[in-house]
Amino acid sequence: MTTPLSPVVPARLGAYARLAKLDVWDYYLALPLAWALAGFTPAAFGVLLVFGIGTVCVVAGSVAFDDVTGFRDGSDAANYGPNASARRLARKPLLTGELTEAEAVRFGWAACGAGALLWALAALVAPYAPLWTVLLGALCLCSSVQYSWGLKISYRGWQEVFLAGFGTGLVLVGLGLCTGSVGGFAAVQSVLFGLGPLLFGVYSNTRDAEGDAAVGRPTAAVLLTEGQNRAFIACLTVAEIALIVTAAGLGPAPWWFALAMLPAMGVRVAQLRRGVGLGDALAARLLGLRAHRVTTASLFAVDLVLVLGAGS
């Protein structure tokens, strides 16, 4: 017999899923990229599966803490105000009253704790676990928890560094656990992956600059003038493209690498035009998500070609 309370459970699970931002999975693409770099071996798949589930937990906990902090200081209320669509506002279950602050905090600690245990398990079962992977993994874990909680590194001018560094670190740690080392081309791909979250984060920060300034969150969009922020974003875009071209022409990448990355570079240029040229930060952010996904898919395809070529 169905009780009147039966719809409550799925509704609350949905609220927790939105608190964990499970619909934003772009950091998790680090795991298939690391698998590709490791040569698509079954052993690497098993290690990365454990590490990947742990990564979902770590990210879920860190974004939950971010929502709690944004709820407490009022920045989320400012950035997700009464003019926000119901769908966009639903991404903040603390603002809608679906979850309490205490429930979000408990969820954050439980998710981060589970993530830490799974990362430790991945290191234990991995064929390789050099010290640098353990230290880098610990840095990724601590910085994600402290992103807007505890030390609040994103409130101390480190937000952009974290956005790029966390993604880069995930690829490096995942690959290190599978192979024990990182080559030059793998390092280039790791940095390109890390630049993806940064290059959609800076457009989000541009849109949220007023609310962030009100609570003392010193993002680049807050610290710089409007013109300087546009120049900063343009420089990041040029740096990403330059890394691709340089790696193909002078670095460890195959000569055809830049040609393979043309679709990704095209979306990135379109993003720059939309956000900096036309001033549409929200549309540019969405293009940034696409650029990151196209970049990761392109890198995956490049690695697949190299593995197949080596085996032929």
Automatic annotation (TrEMBL):
Major localisation: membrane
InterPro entries linked to this entry: UbiA_prenyltransferase (IPR000537), UbiA_sf (IPR044878)
Keywords: Membrane, Transferase, Transmembrane, Transmembrane helix
Gene3D superfamilies cross-referenced by the UniProt entry: UbiA prenyltransferase
Subcellular location(s) per record: Membrane
GO MF annotations, alphabetized: transferase activity, transferring alkyl or aryl (other than methyl) groups
Membrane topology annotation: Multi-pass membrane protein
GO cellular component terms attached to this protein's record: membrane
Top-level taxon in the UniProt lineage: Bacteria
GO BP annotations, alphabetical order: menaquinone biosynthetic process
Bilayer-crossing regions: 33-65, 107-125, 131-149, 161-188, 231-258
A Pfam family recorded for this sequence: UbiA
Protein name: 1,4-dihydroxy-2-naphthoate octaprenyltransferase
Source organism of the structure: Actinokineospora auranticolor
